[in-house]
Write a structure and sequence with these properties.
Blueprint: H1 3-20, H2 25-28, H3 37-56, H4 63-66, H5 72-84, H6 87-100, H7 109-125, H8 132-140
Length: 146
């Protein structure tokens, strides 16, 4: 899998963790902090906790891109632009890969279908749904053993 599709999985996991700790909104929304000192303190604690969770959940080479962000939302926006910004190119590449994908002579059917499903799943990550009829035709046109 590539980094863009891994990002979709990572994002789902990190948002679930943030939700469990009731701090997911800090990653998704602009949060207005009231002047009340207690509310501001809770906000700062929640931001710090969410930032740590995100930093713990990314690889070291990604940390410099997000470490200086002041808010959790800023971190998530940066990660999204880094890993989902090229969806159009990724979608075109995967669609082309799917059109050209063929079973090789002597290849077992299970690995062939698994790979075909993998391409379809990656297309789903980039918000593209392959035509089911095309998928069936591709699978049925696989060469048979002589």
């Amino acid at each position: 899998m590539d980094e863009a599709s891994n990002f979709v999985i990572w994002k789902a996991k990190i948002l679930a963790i943030l939700d469990k700790h009731r701090i997911k909104d800090y990653a998704l929304k602009v949060v207005v902090v009231l002047v009340d000192a207690n509310v501001a303190k809770k906000y700062e604690e929640a931001q710090a906790k969410a930032k740590c969770m995100i930093l713990d959940g990314v690889k070291d080479h990604v940390v410099p891109h997000i470490a200086e962000k002041e808010t959790t939302r800023g971190m998530c926006e940066t990660l999204t632009s880094l890993y989902q910004g090229s969806f159009v190119q990724r979608k075109m590449l995967l669609e082309n890969q799917l059109r050209q994908y063929q079973m090789q002579k002597g290849e077992e059917i299970d690995p062939f279908l698994f790979m075909l499903q993998g391409i379809r799943d990656q297309l789903t990550f980039v918000r593209s749904t392959p035509d089911p009829e095309f998928m069936v035709r591709t699978a049925l046109n696989a060469p048979t053993e002589d």
